[in-house]
Design a protein that fits this description.
The complex is a heterodimer. Helices cover 0% and strands 50% of the residues of chain A. Chain A has no helices and eleven strands. In chain A, strands 2, 4, 5, 6, 9, 10 and 11 form a seven-stranded mixed beta sheet that branches. Chain A has a four-stranded antiparallel beta sheet with strand order 1-3-8-7, with no helix packed on it. The radius of gyration of chain A is 13 Å and the shape is globular. In chain B, 0% of the residues lie in helices and 49% in strands. Chain B is built from no helices and ten strands. The chains are: A mainly beta, B mainly beta. Chain A binds chain B through residues 35, 37, 44-47, 50, 60-63, 96, 105-109, 111-114, and chain B through 1, 32, 34, 36, 38, 43-46, 49-50, 55, 85, 87, 89, 91, 94-101.
C-alpha cells in the first residue's frame, strides 16, 4: 500500500524558512515522480513543485515559489523534501505530498494527508 | 503559461441527474488532462487521466472527454456521495496548473 507521510509543518514568521519532508513507503520511490501541491484555507488546489524519478532528476516550480522553494529527494531514505525560504503570508496552506507511478511528471495518483504551514507574525 | 478555467464554479443538482463540468485550457494540451475529486474535509483523489481514462476503482458513472483546449467531466446519475469539488489539471508541461474547481451540491 502506498503511503505518503508529511512532516515539518508549523507556524513561521514572514521571511522565515521551513523544510517539509514526505516519507514514502509501499512503492519503489526512486522510480516515481513526486510533487508538492498546496491548498490555502478555503481555496483551491495549487501545484507548487515537482521532481522526476529515475536516473536523472528534473525539477519544476510554480512561478509563485520559484527562487524561494527548493524541491529535492533522497532515494536512499525514500523521502521527498521541500525547502521553503522567504515565506510569505500567502504561502499559508496545507501542503500535500503526491506521487505517480512512473518517472515522468503526470497525473497525481497518490496523496498524503498534508502538512499545515502557517506564515504569520 | 497556459491558464486553466472551469465552468460552472458551482452547481446544484438532484440525485440521478446528469452533471457536466467543463475545463478549458488557454492553449492546446493534447489529452494531458486529469480530473480530481475532493470531498469536504478530505484529500483529493484522482478520477480520470489522459482526459478520458478512468482511474482504478472509480465508478463508471464518471467519464471524461475532450482534447486540445476543451474538456468535460460527466457524472451520469449523480449520487449523494458525489458531493465534492472537482478540479482539472494539465500535465503536458510545467507548470502543472489546476483549474479553479467546480463545487457540486445535491
Amino acid at each position: 500500500e502506498v503511503q505518503l507521510l508529511e512532516s515539518g509543518g508549523g507556524l513561521v514568521q514572514p521571511g522565515g524558512s521551513l523544510r517539509l519532508s514526505c516519507a514514502a513507503s509501499g512503492f519503489i520511490f526512486s522510480g516515481y515522480a513526486m510533487s508538492w501541491v498546496r491548498q490555502a484555507p478555503g481555496k483551491g488546489l495549487e501545484w507548487v513543485s515537482g521532481v522526476t524519478g529515475g536516473s536523472g532528476t528534473i525539477t519544476y516550480y510554480a512561478d509563485s515559489v520559484k527562487g524561494r522553494f527548493t524541491i529535492s529527494r533522497d532515494n536512499s531514505k525514500n523521502t521527498l523534501f521541500v525547502q521553503m525560504n522567504g515565506l510569505r503570508a500567502e504561502d499559508t496552506a496545507i501542503y500535500y505530498c503526491t506521487s505517480r507511478p512512473g518517472p515522468e511528471m503526470g497525473p497525481l495518483d497518490y496523496w498524503g494527508q498534508g502538512a499545515l504551514v502557517t506564515v504569520s507574525s | 503559461d497556459i491558464q486553466m478555467t472551469q465552468s460552472p464554479s458551482s452547481l446544484s443538482a438532484s440525485v440521478g441527474d446528469r452533471v457536466t463540468i467543463t475545463c478549458r485550457a488557454s492553449q492546446g494540451i493534447g489529452v494531458a488532462l486529469a480530473w480530481y475529486q475532493q470531498k469536504p474535509g478530505k484529500i483529493p483523489t484522482l478520477l480520470i487521466y489522459t482526459a478520458s481514462s478512468l482511474h482504478s476503482g472509480v465508478p463508471s458513472r464518471f467519464s471524461g472527454s475532450g482534447s486540445g483546449t476543451d474538456f468535460t467531466l460527466t457524472i451520469s446519475g449523480l449520487q449523494p456521495e458525489d458531493v465534492a469539488t472537482y478540479y482539472c489539471q494539465k500535465y503536458d508541461s510545467a507548470p502543472f496548473t489546476f483549474g479553479p474547481g467546480t463545487k457540486v451540491d445535491i
